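Ticket reopened. Same input as before:
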Amino acid sequence: MTLLTDAQQLAYANAQAADGRVNVELETDDGMTLNMGPQHPATHGTLRLVARLDGEQVISADVLCGYMHRGYEKLCEVRSYPQVTTLVNRIDWLGSFANEVPFILAAEQLMEIEAPDRAKWIRTILFELSRLANISLFIGDLALQLGAQTPAFLAFRDREFVLNQIESVTGGRFHPNFDRIGGLKDDLPKGWIADTKAAMVRIRDFCDLMDELVLGNEIFQMRMRGVGVIPADLALSYGLSGANLRGSGVDWDLRRDSNIGLAYDQVDFKVWTHPDGDSYARSWVRLQEVREATRIIDQLCDSMPGGAIMAKVPRIIKVPEGEAYVATENPLGEMGYYVVSKGDTGPFRVKIRSASFNNISIVPWLLKGVYVPDIIAILGSLYFILGDIDR
Amino acid sequence: MADDTTATEDAPAEEAPATDDAREAVLAELTEHLGDAVVDSLIKPGLGLWVRVATDAWTEAADVVRHKAGFRFFDFLSAIDWLPSPYGRYEDATVDIPWPPPMPDRSQAVPGYTGGDTRFQVLASVAKPGTALRILLKADLPDDDLRIGTWIRTYAGAAWHEREAHEMFGITFEGNPDLRHLYLPTEFEGHPLRKEFPLLARVVKPWPGIVDVEPMPGEDADDEAEGDEG
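Engineering reply: fixed in the latest deploy. New output:
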């Protein structure tokens, strides 16, 4: 076997052994260095934050990611198109169905096929259910990070209603792998629509509860208001998206403004923004998005068309040569796939644009000058999923 | 069910018009400010706008699209290696892949939309907030000199994307002071997203999934219905 040279093997072994070491000097002359992570409850996974402090104030902070980098862009190059969805499911693991959709839409755009109406409707419903599963946990988790235990349990309890609905369609609670080029794997089970509408009532109750218990809480407001303010122009320049952008007052939602291949143009919903740009604004926008998502699902359940769930698609999928970029408004923000096809059964190159990567790249700027307890509040309100950063 | 919230953009993908006035106007504006630096362009009506700019105008192009054309939202920045993989798709991969791999002929590196002359191209996307408009910018990178200007003065978010492109492709962004590894360990050698970098997981163990061809729903699974998992 002449696979790698000695030097390359050594480099690989070193790389494997070095994942605990970083090139950051931990001793400083003045002040101290605070190391958070890679395993810290406030980082939702293995994010490492190194902050230099002057007393209680942060002088500079650096984010070290990559502890969970799985090389999806490389792996996509050796997989066929249907095999990619099971992979990209794991990017944002709390809203996993939403990860599949933009990739499938990009492939459909290149193949110039369109899913039937019923498939579009179900896709949109599952997309919004992913948002519910994702963001309802966010609210509970945010409260947990600020020291309140109860909302986290309530969030886990009520998220079950959503997960049960996702499971009864797709068979998977967390990784559905349900979207197909040209449509969906299966139709809805009997009685599902009524169950979903009942679940939406529960989620709306949950929102009301969280409104009082978390966002209306005096301690919560003191911790979040005026903390971590992001100006709108800077948010755009960093590429922040989703509630982080709308929390800075930018009225832009891809669901409304560039809807491709989903049924958002058939429903009435409001895009919420908040002018403050602080941690509270971001959390507030997310809570409103949960409410809007339940409304979207209700409307789509009422107007569900009949018909096929799969367009006519060749058995072996070969995507014609071309390039496409499709982005959707995922729970965490804009997620998109730049797919380059060379006419093969698999993509030639896939660039994954994930929301959290851009959302978290503002952290070194944002943490300058804040106090240590605010780090937790800011990181919590930015809301990132590690898989979405590291891909 | 038309309503006032969907008034901004009337679903451009649905109609697929033969011409695309909004994107034509953006392209005209870019050409006006950048002149000859716009090497090539492509408009897919209702779907996208691709612009290839000259390598030395890369930084200037960022200024123009942000400050002149109003594309203030930074989407992503990455690169593409247009050479085919010397390992194919690892479908018959065994441990006997020779090293160094037999590199495909340089002439097989054929860039996609808007063409190009080089093996590597940088690719970036910017968007106009509140609309569906997006520009996909490309620039050639000379084979022997993978250097290009930085975007961090214009788009702050480009800093991490350039770090990623630097470690994954070995591209140097001149003017970016912080090109440390982002994902990879500091000691890591090589550039994983280059096509000649082997995917070790596939080399040491052949991929079994290639035999699983799942029949489509509604399709007759008469010929070899293997891999039909529910």
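Confidence is low (pLDDT under 50) at residues 19-28 of chain A. The CA atoms of residues 25 and 33 of chain A lie 9 Å apart. Please confirm and we'll close it.
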